[in-house]
Amino acid sequence: MLENSKLGILGGGQLGAMIIRHAIDLGLHISVMDKDPLAPCSRYTSSFFTGDPASFDDVLEFGRDLDVITIEKEAVNIKALRQLEKQGVKVFPAPDTIEVIQDKFTQKQFLQSHHIPVVPGEAIGGKNDLYQYEQKLPVCLKKRRDGYDGYGVMVLRTKEDILSAFDAPCVVEELVDIKQEISVIVARNEAGVIKCYDPVLMVFSEEKFILDHQIAPARIDKELQEKAISIAKDIADALKLVGILAVEIFVTKDNELLVNELAPRPHNSGHHTIEASTTSQYEQLLRAVLGLPLGDTELRFPSIMMNILESTSLNADRQAKVKRLLDIPEAHLHWYGKEGKRPGRKVGHLTVTDNTIENVIAKAETIRKILN
Ligand code: ADP
Fold this sequence. Notes:
Layout: E1 6-10, H1 14-25, E2 29-34, E3 47-50, H2 56-63, E4 68-71, H3 78-86, E5 90-91, H4 95-102, H5 104-113, E6 121-124, E7 139-143, E8 153-156, H6 159-163, E9 170-174, E10 178-188, E11 194-196, E12 200-204, E13 211-216, H7 222-238, E14 243-252, E15 257-263, H8 273-276, H9 281-289, E16 303-309, H10 312-315, H11 318-326, E17 331-335, E18 346-353, H12 357-371
This protein binds adenosine-5'-diphosphate (ADP).
């Protein structure tokens, strides 16, 4: 039955590759489309197509013969996905869901209209509109579309900062006094069944807004944990989600929860589920979009997931470092095999598990020393 399902993924990066890895277990036929002919997924399926997920024609052509289409990035052509739906292809998450999330401002409006607590923010057309915020600095400025790994985020503290601000449609948010950042991954299927993973703690790098490492479980107050899970479930219902959704939440210094942003696809904060949870987020996505029962989300071991970023220090003696990493028990290396060498970009990750969080932290410290 499953081997006849033709699944397509828009986007061929590391998230796509990890979906493929789990789709193999289910015997699926997988097609992938990415702009970059050398994207990680190009090596893992013979049905790899070079095309732009944001192009109407490319998406339509790619989806024609598929049964189900899903995404590993939000920047996809919504019109083409709607057209494919009309032609009988199942598109999960639904085009409406992707569309509302693609734009950080419409996403915020959607959440507000469903009484979900979010970081307050306003939309502006470009840099010139920022001068009206001079008296309200500092603020956090975010591009409305296509931002990722902090590339579309900047903090404006002084009037001078406005000169170097993004000149694009943006959202201006108040700067939140963040105590902790957590993420909740939630899955929902067509029948409306919801399964949620426990919140994880996300620790961002100091200089850049990119995730450095993630700890599961988050070890926050039980009450906050339940609140976060309930928020994630409410959002999945409000979106009528079919698939998987990451809900990034700020815990403020006053212990308030504010949703920062959503990602309607597997997420960096859920990589640990491969080794640490009963069902990985990738398998859960496949179960959700194929109409299969959702899997158990229990965390079986505490874990830390560390992103590996491209850097000159990593490159010095890379082979020897990889060997040392692989020598650590229960340190699971995921190397993305990306072409090119742009400093700062994610080239892999490591998930380390153990029976106690103390042991996990000790191993993570060893790993950090090897990587630096
Ligand atoms: P991206 O989509 O690039 O991941 P995010 O909107 O998630 O961008 O922002 C990246 C990081 O920037 C957040 O994880 C947080 O550390 C910081 N940040 C974002 N918005 C705010 C805000 N309003 N106040 C303070 N810090 C913020």
